[in-house]
Write a structure and sequence with these properties.
With about 300 residues, this protein is α/β, with parallel strands linked by helices. The protein has 6 helices and 10 strands; from the N terminus they run αβαβαββββααββαββ. It has helices at about 5-45, 70-85, 105-120, 175-180, 195-205, 240-245, and strands at about 60-65, 90-100, 125-130, 130-135, 150, 170-175, 210, 225, 260-270, 275-280.
């Protein structure tokens, strides 16, 4: 091998050796610094204990709609309510509890079922009639922290005006609903379950608030009532002992013992507005409430 070529090869070998030594030194230095940093971190965490606070959770409203055979009204209700609540920045989900059995309509039991369907996802609810649409954006659907809020005040509802009326649209927390044991299951047919629920709330010393009439000044035009009584008459007949037994506080039935079968559930979207439909069959104890069926 020529002498010049040998010198060149030797120089290359020396440079490679130097580079390898430098690289190894850098790796060892990095490992040492990393080990020192990890050790210091372990030392710090061993001396100082801390907890990461949970992120604040946003309240979510369950709009519970007791329902049967009123799909024309539902087609209007779902997009209207979704838009109204979205504009008010209210996180929400619409639960349509559809009674598919052959018994008479039982609004209270359906609301009890709605609570059970929504309790894991929402922390407060609106007992909401499908035929009552809010029009005034000043109506408050926010979380009722320390009270019950009756949105459809008798001073604003287009039909019902008596002072103890708490129907139409009523907001309360899931905790308060459970505290009251929900609504009575004895009210088959139309009406009076709200009046009994009013007594439950009063006995529990819950404060019932209503919209401020100095702010909500639209009077009986605050809501639009879309029910056609001629096409869909109310089932407000009383059979047997139904009248007398329905005029006092029910201390026997409620949320804890509502008896039903969930047949199916479906997600629907109406005009880009989502809702869940729960098809349920309510069970009736005919020895206790024989008026759950229309006499033949």
């Amino acid at each position: 091998m020529p002498r010049i070529q040998w010198k060149r090869n030797r120089i290359v070998l020396i440079c490679v050796s130097i580079a390898c030594c430098l690289l190894l030194s850098l790796k060892l230095l990095g490992y040492s610094l990393l080990h020192q940093r990890v050790s210091e971190d372990r030392l710090r965490t061993s001396k100082v204990s801390f907890t990461i606070p949970p992120l604040p959770t946003r309240h979510k409203l369950a709009v519970i709609v007791p329902f049967r055979d009123r799909f024309e009204e539902l087609l209007e209700f779902v997009p209207h309510m979704h838009s109204f609540l979205k504009n008010a920045s209210i996180a929400h989900k619409i639960y349509v509890i559809n009674q598919v059995d052959t018994h008479r309509f039982n609004r209270a039991s359906l609301i009890n079922v709605g609570y059970k369907m929504s309790v894991l996802e929402c922390d407060y609810l609106a007992m909401h009639d499908v035929d009552l649409l809010p029009l005034n954006p000043l109506l408050d659907y926010g979380f009722p922290t320390d009270h019950v809020f009756h949105v459809a005040s008798p001073y604003l509802h287009p039909i019902y005006h008596y002072k103890k009326f708490v129907g139409g649209i009523l907001l309360l927390t899931h905790a308060n609903f459970q505290q009251l044991n929900g609504l009575s299951n004895r009210y088959w047919g139309w009406g009076r379950e709200d009046d009994e629920f009013y007594v439950r709330m009063k006995e529990a010393d819950l404060t019932i608030l209503r919209p401020d009439l100095e702010k909500v000044t639209t009077g009986y035009k605050t809501f639009r009532h879309i029910h056609d009584r001629k096409r869909r008459p109310r089932d407000n007949k009383r059979y047997g002992n139904q009248g007398p037994s329905g005029s006092h506080r029910d201390r026997k039935t409620g949320l804890a013992d509502v008896d039903f079968d969930l047949i199916s559930k479906h997600r629907i979207v109406i005009e880009n507005s989502p809702a869940m439909i729960y098809n349920v069959e309510l069970q009736c104890d005919v020895t206790d409430t024989p008026w759950c069926d229309t006499p033949t």
